[in-house]
Amino acid sequence: MSGLFFFYIDYHVVKDVTAQGESSMVGLIAAALMFSMQIVALPIYIKMIEKKGKTFAYRFGALLWIISALFILIIPANANPIAVYALGAVMGFGISGPGLVPHTMYGDVVDAGQLMFKERLDGQMSGFTNFINKIAQAVGLAIVMFLIGVAGFTEREPGAPQILSQPDSATLMIRLIMVIAPLIFMSIGMLISFKYKINASRQKELAKAIEHEDGDYQALLDELSS
User: Fold this and answer.
1) Taking a C-beta distance cutoff of 8 angstroms, is the pair 15, 165 a contact?
2) What is the pLDDT of residues 194-219, one digit of tens each?
3) What is the value of pTM for the model shown?
4) Can you give the residue range of the structural domain that contains 24?
């Protein structure tokens, strides 16, 4: 998404500037706003988690990301940079939720795993999570590059002159991917989040069950896995 964002800016939002061979700061400023807003949003999401729970915070961020991404299809070519800055800021705020919340869930899942498997599996769970993450990144990049290539995206060869424009089909594909990918994957994540049962009270029950290993906690595990 971050790589496509610069393509989107250069070849759609400021396409006339790029076509003239001139550089533009619009992409850099918009990306900086997007990434900085992800940091600014963290304490807000932490407060949201305290008040509403982790799954609510995840769904809030995912929904905001989906809604803001839809504006990518609305913003016209050579648009006012202010519109792009606003889009980057709002989208960054949304991205922060799905980026943060799964990490806060990790400890809860490890606690539940300790009860289920009778041993602490932090290393195995962390390794598996990172393994799946790397696979997803690699496959995602490959699919995206393939799709924009099929759509006619012109790749710059090493040492060749700068690419000053892309066909409309390629810029349309870039915009569609930036809209459809969050729509599909964040929607899946939101649906999965409804199955996540470890809230604040369940966290306390898990901690108590781990502390008293000889207790009867099968009912708790059954409830969490139902």
Assistant:
1) yes
2) 988 887 777 777 777 777 765 667 77
3) 0.86
4) 2-225
Q: Which of 71, 99, 105, 67 lies closest to 85 in space, CA to CA?
A: 71
User: H-helix or E-strand containing 226?
Assistant: none
38 closest CA partner among 94, 96, 89, 87: 96
Query: How confident is the model over 44-60, as pLDDT tens digits?
Result: 999 999 899 899 999 99
Domain count, the chain: 1
Angle at 193 between CA 192 and CA 197, to 5 degrees: 115
In whole angstroms, give the CA distance from residue 66 to residue 22. Answer: 32
Q: What token pair was written down for 191?
A: 């649906």
CATH number of 90's domain: 1.20.1250.20
How far CA 150 is from CA of 36, 38, 61, 142, 191, in Å, comes to 33, 32, 32, 12, 31
